[in-house]
Structures are given as structure tokens and as C-alpha cells.
Amino acid sequence: MIKQQVDVVVVGAGPAGLSAARAAAQAGARVAVLDDNPRAGGQVWRNGPAHPPAAALTWQLAALRSAGNVVLLSSARVVAPLDDRGLLVESAQRGALELGYQRLILATGARERLLPFDGWTLPGVTGAGGLQALIKGGMPVRGERIVIAGSGPLLIASLATARQAGATVLAVVEQAPWSALARFGIGLAATPSKLWQAAQLTRGFGGLRYLTGSVVREAHGDGRVERISIRRGASADRAADVVFDCDRIACGYGLVPNITLGDALGCAIRRDAAAGSVLIVDHEQRTSLDQVFAAGECTGIGGMELASVEGEIAGLNAVGATREATRLHAQRDRWQRFARRVETAFALREAARALPSDHTVLCRCEDVSCADVREHTNWRDAKLQTRCGMGPCQGRVCATAAEVYFGWNTAQTRPPFSPARIATLLEAAPEPATASE
Ligand SMILES: Cc1cc2nc3c(=O)[nH]c(=O)nc-3n(C[C@H](O)[C@H](O)[C@H](O)COP(=O)(O)OP(=O)(O)OC[C@H]3O[C@@H](n4cnc5c(N)ncnc54)[C@H](O)[C@@H]3O)c2cc1C
């Protein structure tokens, strides 16, 4: 197996990881930054055949190149931690790789929170961020009628991407009530750059319905999505359904931090079934483990600007440049305040948290229904009795939903974190003891 040793390893090449790598490299450290996507940029700067890289990403990559001491590994994922400051990496270009480090920076970002509804497994239903990723990857949607639903600012980013690609967005369905959104909108005056961004992305919602205090009730279709029912109103007695004929539904209820690697390493975690569990960091972005830092959305959902400044602080502290890092604290505080306002405005309300009908599939990998899971008192029991969360996605979707519906702790990190080649795992396995030993 190829072995490589550097001063700083950064996992994740989104805004946090790239800022961390740049800060550490510019201070002279030998840095390796890796990401499981084929192109650097993480979620917000995702690019592809139909979507050129954003200017900010081009700038970050140029700065890394000019530092000269950075290895950027794309299509490379950490499948397991190794003893003694090492990571087992599977790289599309290099095969199995053992990456050794003095300092580790976790910048593993977030995942979309998908909450099931009747019909959510029909072809044509994706997450809101999922739709964006597909469009940026080249999926044509020109002329399609799309409904975007769920909660949070990602719906608006998804709206802009879908429109730009030529789709007709019929409605944006937001679970948060109008009153919370109005308060949030007024508060945007404190961050004019965000106000401007929102205006650019929505174009005032011209030509579509913007339904607040509403959730998706059901997707209908024969082999593919043809129609969506949306429940308006919080209380069942005053609720009314609205129906749209559509070709596609993109539904995501915000984001949850991706703490898989930090959890496997043993970093301290703050468990929160409502907002998603986060890696705990101090003001220098240090985790509870010696020489392991974390930045960006694995430490809490906060958007690109917060992720970038946290990454820079982590990168500087990882190379001992604490004074330079301290100068960025005020900027981080400002974006953290913004993140708290977003969290309050888009907190999941009762209608979104309500368990869907008994026959709705909760775990699509193992075909387990909500009724099957509801029978059990905790996640471990549900897994053992129903195989829920034990399929190829290893609970990325259903465990997150079960946390919301049942308040369970669904932490279950066990390497390998994602499907890995047997050869990769064998190379990392300790030599078996011989008969004479
Ligand atoms: C699907 C989706 C779409 C989004 N779209 C937008 C948008 O359009 N606009 C916007 O403002 N915000 C968007 N966001 C929010 C976005 O997450 C943040 O604003 C920002 O990208 C966070 O930066 P980050 O560096 O913390 O994480 P990310 O940008 O998420 O980067 C983390 C990277 O780490 C990689 N990674 C994780 N684990 C491993 C591992 N074990 N091995 C290798 N690599 C790993 C991930 O694949 C990812 O590329 C989106 C989020 C999601 C989940």
C-alpha cells in the first residue's frame, strides 16, 4: 500500500477544508487535502459539465497551487481511521493509501435531511440539494415542472439552480410559518450581503406559489412522480390540501452535520436530535482530541461564509499561527449570529416532525416501513429486529429521520464508513500472527 506522510491532512475540500488547507500551506506546512467528490468545492461550490467552478473556488485552488506544498486528492475518501495518526484512504487514481499526519483537520460538511412522505421513493423525487447536485452534474430539467419543498435557505438556492437550467418551478413549499420568515427577513438587514443574495436567487418569487407553514403530504404517480399533495396549516382540523401536477419533487428539511469521521476517531460530540449532532470545538477550532481540529458544517450548520472563516482559523491554529487566527474571531462571531437566526427561523415545526402514515417506507435500502420501526423503543433494537439502517447507505437517510420522529440517538459509526474494496481493507489489516509467535 502507498504510504504518505504530511504535516496537515484536511478531510473535505469544501469552503472550510480549502480555507484550512490554504492557511496551513501558506504558513509553510506540507498539506494533503482530500475529498470523495471528483472535483474540489464541496457542496456549495459543486461544479460539473453543466456548471463551471465559482470564482471563489477558482481563487482558492490557485492559492493552493501557488503555495506549492499541497497535494489535492479528489475522488479519495477516508474509509477508516488507522492507529497512530493515520487514515485509510481509497483513491480512484491511487488505490489504497495510508495517509499519516501530525495534525488533522476535519471539514466533512453536512448532509441533507430527508424526511419520508407517502410516495417519496417514486422516481422523480430527490432532495432539494440533491436536485442541485444532479443539475450541476449535467441532468437535463429544461421544460420540467418542479415543486421544491422542505425547509431552509437551500430551497431558495435550489430554486435558482432549477430555473437557470430551464425548469418551471411551480411552487416552493416551506414548513416554517410566515411569521418566522418575516422576522428572519427583517433581520437580514444586519447582513446586507445575504439580503442581496436572497433577492438575486428568488427574483421576488415571480411566477410561482410560495407556500409557508406547509409540508408535503404525498407524491402520486404510476411508476414516476405525476402529482404532489401539500398540506397547508399546522393543525389537522384547519389543514387543507393543495395539489399540483408536476414532473419532479425536490424535498429536503435542512441539513445535518456529517460527523461520521470525527465520531469514529472519538471526538466529543454534542447530541441534538432536533438540530443534528455536532463535533464540539473550542474557540481555536480544536476538537477534544489532541491535534485534531474541525471546521465548517461538521461543527454546526452555518453556511459558506462561516465555514470559510472557521476553516482559516483551524488551518492557522494547526500550524501554531494563533495570533493571526485570533484576528478572525470577530468575523466568525458575526457569521455565528447569522447561523443562529437561520436555525431559529427554520426550526422544524410539529407538522414536519410528525411520523408519516404506517405504510410509508422509512428505510428504502432494506424496505422497512414506519410501522415496523415504530414498534421498537430504540435505534439498536429497531436495527436488530428490522434491518433498518443496515443497507448500503448505512442509515444516512433513515437514521436521521428516526432521530427526528422518535428522538433516538442513532450514532452508529463503524468503519468502513462507505463501501470499500476488499483489497483496501486487507491492506490495512494487521499481519496475522504466525504459529511460532
Ligand atoms: C446537498 C447540499 C447542497 C448544498 N447547496 C448549497 C448551495 O447551493 N448554496 C449554499 O449556500 N449552500 C449550500 N449547501 C450548504 C453547504 O453545505 C455549506 O454552505 C458549505 O458548503 C459548507 O462548507 P463545508 O466546507 O463545511 O462543507 P462541504 O461544502 O459540505 O464540504 C465537505 C466535503 O467533505 C467531503 N467528505 C465528507 N466526508 C468525507 C470522507 N470520509 N472522505 C472524503 N471526503 C469527505 C464531502 O463530500 C464534501 O465534499 C448545500 C448543502 C448540501 C448538503
TrEMBL record:
Keyword Oxidoreductase found: yes
Name of the protein in its database record: NADPH-dependent 2,4-dienoyl-CoA reductase/sulfur reductase-like enzyme
Signal peptide: none
Any one Gene Ontology molecular-function term assigned to this protein's record: oxidoreductase activity
Assigned keywords, A-Z: Oxidoreductase
Domain of life: Bacteria
Chain ranges of the FAD/NAD(P)-binding domain: 7-308
InterPro entries with a match to the protein in the record: BFD-like_2Fe2S-bd_dom_sf, FAD/NAD-bd_sf, FAD/NAD-binding_dom, Metab_Enz_Cyan_OpOx_G3PDH, Opine_Oxase_asu/HCN_bsu
Pfam families for the chain: Pyr_redox_2
